[in-house]
Amino acid sequence: MRTSVTVPNEDEIRRQNGFMEKIKALNAKKDTAPKFFINTFGCQMNAHDSEKINGMLRQMGYAPADDEKNADFIIYNTCCVRENAENKVYGNLGYLKHAKKDNPDMKIALCGCMMQQPTVIETIRKKYRHVDIVFGTFNLYKLPELIMTNIESGAPVFDIWQKHAEIVEDLPTVRKYKFKASVNIMFGCNNFCSYCIVPYVRGRERSRRPEDIVAEIKALAADGVKEVMLLGQNVNSYGRGLEKETSFAELLRMVNEIEGLKRIRFMTSHPKDLSDELIKAMAECDKVCNHLHLPFQAGSDRILEQMNRRYTKARYLELANKVRRAVPDISLTTDIMVGFPGETEEDVLETIDVVKKVRFASAFTFIYSKRTGTPAAEMENQVPEDVVKGYFNKLLDEVNTVVYEINQSKLGKTYEVLVDDISGGDADFVTGRTTDNTLVHFRGCKDLIGELVNVKITESKPFYLIGEMI
Ligand code: 5AD
Ligand code: SF4
């Protein structure tokens, strides 16, 4: 079933703006602006939601804190894709209980994917009573109203929706970088991979209208943005259910026409929906970066079927070859999981075989985490932890070997790099990414941040490159 998307509700935005004004007036009466700190867990989708939260809080007269310890308003934007991300949140909340005793005016808010699970809400209500505001993934735009309700009532506010409403456009956003930006093109997921909680916490797939996306990117480009990252759980199925159906390939071509924009990235792609039309558009659109993130998860056909991934190892290898033929220098990256219920050593060898054959430039490797409510959590044959650790180390060895070899092959070549920042360890160095998404460090000053420069690679490290600007 498709979910139709209604037009953005301008009245609702106006209502929230009203709350923002009221809170801003309250904050202006204080001696100093209250400070906020956002702790973001999980994926780029969450990171982008945090940019919206940041925008709203600033508009309400809060100022950013450099550290959680100095903050008066702390917000955790949570993830639930794996158990360890959830455990971190509970651990931090335990610590915040003491911090709140020292600063009784402190407000603690929780939002994001983890909050969409009823068992989590129950736990917070029972064990973490010092939390003030809780909301989910569908009603982020209501933050001003929730803060106001909490101020007026002095009581905790819980507002979790089990279903999405319409897509709300035009939230104020504070970008982390001036020269690059993330743009949501769709929300939710319809795939129901058997291990994954995302469809349950982010709802059904719904796409933003292409004209809204293009207008947002035009405004970003006019504001100095050179690179955009188009975000969706499964961008390859973009546009289904829209009034005027538009494919992701068509959207890419529209974005490619935007003046001033230099680079287009996107994530995440599902192999089952990677069409020839999209591969052609990637090859033909000059601004689309030489990089495709294409999670394959596992190499064994039996496990892929159990995962409900709807492709086989052979099909994945064929796709990778097809993409490489169309875009010869493209770098392929991926997500891989080990320890899915019933996975044997033989299955893992199939996964390793895919790594060897496709030669990924980098890979996110995960240990399967049992998520209550997903079909995989009910499967028998959950693999014991020590066995999975063995699989994981074997996989990681192979991934690292391939990544290092690929980095070695870049020695002596010149790449265009978009400079992101001063290098963490050394103020005389800057860091940025090539179009194929490799991290490069080179000598340079902060004036280069946001510039596209050519860099010749002089040294290769296991996970990044070192070069010289030419
Ligand atoms: N356990 C471990 N990893 C998971 N992922 C998704 N669900 C789980 C899970 N239950 C991984 C997949 C996905 C990435 C975002 O997270 O590899 O591509
Ligand atoms: Fe992102 Fe999924 Fe984690 Fe939510 S659960 S933050 S969508 S990775």
What does this structure look like?
Mean pLDDT is about 95; it is low at about 1-10. The chain is built from 13 helices and 19 strands. The strands form five sheets. It has a six-stranded parallel sheet with strand order 2-1-3-4-5-6, with helices on both faces. The relative contact order is 0.08. By secondary structure, the chain is an alpha/beta fold. Helix content is about 35%, strand content about 20%. It has four domains: about 10-160, 3-Layer(aba) Sandwich (Rossmann fold); about 180-280, 2-Layer Sandwich (Transcription Regulator spoIIAA); about 290-410, Transcription Regulator spoIIAA, CATH 3.30.750; about 415-470, OB fold (Dihydrolipoamide Acetyltransferase, E2P). The protein starts with 9 loop residues before the first helix and ends with a strand. The structure holds 5'-deoxyadenosine and iron/sulfur cluster. Iron/sulfur cluster binds next to helix 2 and helix 6.
